[in-house]
Design a protein that fits this description.
alpha/beta; Rossmann fold
Length: 272
């Protein structure tokens, strides 16, 4: 995009983590922000922080799994802000553990939020982005969208789907005024793991509090700054974090070597 000044950005999952950091980064670049989250208090806190930066913020309590609610969200944003220029589909959940032991309901939960939440957002806001002078869509994938990893099989399923969807959408919109970016963060210091499901969810949640946490985890603010740069430069891909860059290199240079990755990971986790 040529400029973010006086643009309107919609950020889902904006009540914390990457969503909150991205809302603040966009506000810092001159955007008004529609703060979307399923948690009212968290959304209000983010909105107050955006307002403190001198930009307008509105709060929208929406479950991105609900296609009708997301359609209504688009109408509400345009009604309150007059337009929409940037859509950041950030809302997401995670899981960790054996695929064999994962209940089907947990896999459906991941799909509904991580995949259908992105699809619902794009379908609802694309008409408004077309009406704007220029627009941009950002969809959050993950490093496991670059290379499926063991003990993250179902999460990899959803983030791989987001990757393919986003790359296809960018190709479809390439001659329009709408840019599309896929973001691939590694392990990020957010509270997403607190709601994680799966047999290894507790171990995943404890990573941030461990002594290695600060060394292994990238900050949400780092991701947010890369997202904003990706919007401004219309990047197709944004890879964030040393672990995500390492996975990206393996995926590019050693395609088909997922078995090697699996053996290493299983040894580290003590799994068979």
């Amino acid at each position: 995009m040529r400029t973010l000044v006086d643009r309107v950005a919609v950020v889902t999952g904006a009540g914390g983590g990457i969503g909150r950091a991205t809302s603040l980064a966009l506000a810092g670049r001159g955007c008004d922000v529609a703060v979307v989250d399923i948690r009212p208090e968290a959304a209000e806190q983010t909105a107050s922080m955006v307002s403190a930066l001198g930009r307008r913020a509105t709060v929208h309590v929406v479950d991105v799994r609900d296609a009708d609610a997301v359609q209504s969200l688009a109408a509400d944003v345009v009604d309150q802000h007059g337009a929409c220029h940037v859509l950041v589909n950030n809302a997401g959940v995670t899981s960790a553990g054996s695929f064999e032991a994962e209940p089907l309901g947990d896999i459906e939960w991941l799909m509904d939020i991580n995949v259908w939440g992105v699809v619902n957002g794009c379908r609802a806001f694309l008409p408004e982005l077309r009406r704007a002078e220029e627009g941009h869509i950002v969809n959050l994938s993950s490093m496991v969208g670059l290379l499926g990893l063991p003990h993250n099989v179902s999460y990899s399923l959803t983030k791989g789907a987001v990757r393919s969807f986003t790359e296809g959408l960018r190709s479809e919109l390439i001659t329009s005024s709408i840019g599309v970016t896929a973001v691939f963060p590694g392990a990020i210091d957010t509270d997403i793991t607190s709601a994680a499901r799966g047999t290894e969810a507790e171990r995943l949640a404890g990573l941030g509090g461990s002594r290695l946490g600060p060394k292994l985890l990238t900050s949400p603010e780092t991701v947010a700054s890369r997202i904003v740069a990706g919007i401004e430069r219309n990047r197709a891909r944004v890879v964030v974090g040393p672990d995500a860059h390492a996975v990206n290199v393996v995926a590019r240079l050693l395609p088909g070597r997922s078995g090697l990755v699996g053996r290493i990971t299983n040894r580290l986790l003590g799994s068979s």
